[in-house]
Amino acid sequence: MFRDPVYDGAADASTVRDPERREWRMFYTNRRATLKGGDEKDVTWVHGTKIGMATSRDGSRWKYAGTAAIPASCTGATLWAPEIGYFAGRWHMWLTIVPGIFSNWNAPRFIVHLTSKDLKRWTCGERLALGSDRVIDASVAEIAPGKYRLWYNDERSGKSIRSADSADLVHWLPGPGVVDTPGEGPKAFRWRNRWWLISDAWQGLLVMRSDDAAQWTRQEGYLLAEPGALPTDRAKGQHPDIVVADDRAYLIYFVHQGGEPEAASDPRWHRRSVLQISELIERDGRLTIDRARRAALPKP
Question: Which domains does the chain have, with CATH numbers?
Answer without folding.
Answer: 10-289 (2.115.10.20)
